[in-house]
Amino acid sequence: MRDTLTISQLSQLMNVSVHQLRYFEEKGVLYPAFTEDNQYRMYGIDEIYQLSHVLLLRKLNIPVSQIEQCLTSYSGSQYKQVFEQSLTKVQEEIHRLVKLEQFIHKVLSEQAEMEGRDQEVVMVSLGPRYLRHWLSLDEHQVLTAGTLYEHRPAPPDLYEQDLHYLTGGGVIRICYETMEPADYVLEEGEYLLKNFSVYQEEEIEQEVLQLEQYIQEHGYTRQGQIVVIEKSYLSMFSNEQLHYQIQAKVGLSERETENYASTPVSD
């Protein structure tokens, strides 16, 4: 059995294309042990080890142009720094992917809920939520691209968040959820919720009035204002409609709490 491999055999052993091996040679990071008279490049065990180091450095996102310097002059402490920096980047990417996974689950769950409970009023128990103020509009002012630009920077991942619209004193305050400290707090309690879809933003006011009427007809006491929550990412499932949720914290008797908490509220 021969002690060396051809470039084709090395390619099969290390699962690397012949083209990539020739590229590594062109860039000076991997040379054959020798070249036979028939111009076949031959590689031994030393070249296999070197190739494994090259591939590892590429996996750590070290550019090929820097690998030659790594292989010829890097000290142990410099390699340690390379791995530590790569670890930081990997952890950041894991964090990004975990957040993306959570968002995908959120979208799919809310889309299923929207389909199953669209236009249905339900009672749920909600914990406290903390809101950061972003921008304010006059009650009859239309939100435009220019308004968004004037109030930059926008919240992180704008429109992947639930935008909360708080009204009062002729002003609409647009907020997004955050951690403490916050500008506003939606208190823990029993909330009436309704998901709905509209074609025009003007229809939102009608939905709010209908929820007000529902609260009165069913003998609830509203505690605080009705909050409109925009879920723009759900609009991807229906290009012509905008998707919202309205929430109203209400007071309940002990009997009503037992009967209705976390269950659909029927007429």
| Average pLDDT, all residues | 89
Termini, distance in Å? Answer: 85 Å
Strand segment tally: 12
Helicity range: 40-55%
What fraction of residues sit in β-strands?
Answer: 15-25%
Low-pLDDT stretches are 260-267
- Please state the structural category: alpha+beta
Radius of gyration: 30 Å
* Approximate shape: elongated
Number of helical runs? 8
Give a quick account of the main beta sheet: strands, pairing sense, barrel closure: 9 strands, antiparallel
Question: Helix and strand succession?
Answer: EHHEEHHHEEHEEEEHEEEH
In short:
The chain has 267 residues and is of the alpha+beta class. Helices cover 42% and strands 25% of the residues.
Q: Which helices and strands, and how do they pair?
A:
Elements lengths: L4 E2 H8 L3 H9 L7 E2 L5 E3 L1 H15 L4 H10 L2 H42 L3 E6 L2 E10 L6 H6 L12 E6 L2 E8 L5 E3 L2 E10 L4 H15 L3 E2 L4 E4 L11 E10 L2 H7 L7
Antiparallel strand pairs: 1-3, 2-3, 4-9, 5-7, 5-8, 6-7, 6-11, 9-12, 10-12, 11-12
Explain what you see.
The chain has 267 residues and is of the alpha+beta class. Helix content is 42%, strand content 25%. It has 8 helices and 12 strands. The chain has helices spanning 7-14, 18-26, 45-59, 64-73, 76-117, 145-150, 203-217, 254-260, and strands at residues 5-6, 34-35, 41-43, 121-126, 129-138, 163-168, 171-178, 184-186, 189-198, 221-222, 227-230, 242-251. The strands form 2 sheets. Strands 4, 5, 6, 7, 8, 9, 10, 11 and 12 form a 9-stranded antiparallel beta sheet that branches. Strands 1-3-2 form a 3-stranded antiparallel beta sheet. A hairpin with a 5-residue loop joins strand 2 (34-35) and strand 3. Mean pLDDT is 89; it is low at 260-267.
